[in-house]
Amino acid sequence: MIDRIKNCLRNGCTARPVIFTLTVSVILASLYNVPFWKELLDIQTHFATREVLFLLSFPVFIICVLTTLFSIFSILRVQRYVAAFIFPVAAGGLYFMQTYHILIDHTMIENVFQTDTKEVRDLISISLFAYLVFLGFIPSFIFFRMKIKPLSFIKTLLVHGGVILSCLVIVGLIAIPFYRDYASTFRNHRQLLYLINPTNSISGVWRYVSKDLLKSPKKMVAIGTDAKQTQTQNRKPNLIIMMVGEAARAQSFSLLHEHAHDTNPLMEKRADIIPLTNLSSCGTSTAVSVPCMFSPFTRDQYSKSKFDGSENVVDVLKHAGLNLYWKDNNSSCKGVCERISNDNVLHAKNPNFCSSGDCF
């Protein structure tokens, strides 16, 4: 047995096409979807016979979905290449979902595409390296080295077509008693869709590329072109500085709520700070919260496509004749400051403000 394993690693194992597809699907559905299974168990409130059977049907459902996808790749004879690509992607997705308790959707993919080298360095760790090596590159290497027993195209089509049909029949048999349970679960707990690994990353990339990167530019809608400054008796020009910080939980601010620790000790000593408690961010990521904050849309109305096709508050201030300047120490202003003077100090070398690696 040991000699066989060594020979398999050295020269590559030989597997039947269906066995290869099922093995990849079962491994991905089990080991790489721990956050999904944990969340699915956490949302259950009853564990009667029906609920237990419903939970037991989920692994079968996920395996059937993955097997169907890999059967299509098998018909195209690219299953080894797809597996070699999928395992590192799934390993990375698993790490970030496990470590940071995040959901992976097109917004998270947008954050990945828009991040900078400093933010990437902050995320690199030994744990990430271990996930990528042991759950990503090693399985990728093993499955890529596997030799698939050759079949004629007609036989390949018949075999994998039969597998796809069998999976559809199984999914149909699951849907007969549990359709309402599945519909209710995914409707009330949409986060589950963004925990299914690796389809969450793949669908997120597809949506981001198709809706954002490949979209045709929209005609810009001007707003507030009639904005004017109000004349005041004070002839001295006013200088207003607005600082946009990171999104954070309001409950973590002792300035706003009772907290076990004084999280804002210096701010609490000042009498000129006015907290606005009835405001909330549009999102927890910079790519969403900053554009939405300056857009003319509410949180429910906002979308990236709407923002890209409309001027924002900064443009209105410019129409009013204000002299504006945006200084950024993040990856970018996310499109807010494109039509005014701006500067990014992220890579500045000023020792007075950049000694810790961040420029303030």
Structure description:
This protein has 360 residues and is mainly alpha-helical. Helix content is 54%, strand content 3%. The chain has 14 helices and 4 strands. The strands form 2 sheets. A two-stranded parallel sheet has the order 1-2. The termini are far apart.
Principal-axes geometry comes out as: elongated
Return residue spans where pLDDT drops below 50 for at least 5 consecutive residues: none
Number of distinct helices? 14
What kind of sheet is the major sheet? 2 strands, parallel
Order of helices and strands: HEHHHHHHHEHHHHHHEE
The proportion of strand residues reads under 5%
Could you tell me the radius of gyration in angstroms?
27 Å
Q: Label the structural class.
A: mainly alpha
Number of strands: 4
Residues in helix, %: 40-55%
Q: What strand line-up does the widest sheet have?
A: 1-2
Nearest-integer average pLDDT: 88
From the N-terminal CA to the C-terminal CA, the straight-line distance is 61 Å
Structure summarized in a few sentences:
This protein has helices spanning 2-11, 17-31, 34-42, 49-75, 79-100, 106-114, 117-123, 126-145, 153-188, 199-213, 265-268, 286-294, 304-308, 313-319; strands at residues 14-15, 147-148, 325-328, 341-344. The protein has 360 residues and is mostly helical. Helix 2 crosses helix 4, helix 5 (79-100) runs antiparallel to helix 8 (126-145) and helix 6 crosses helix 10 (199-213).
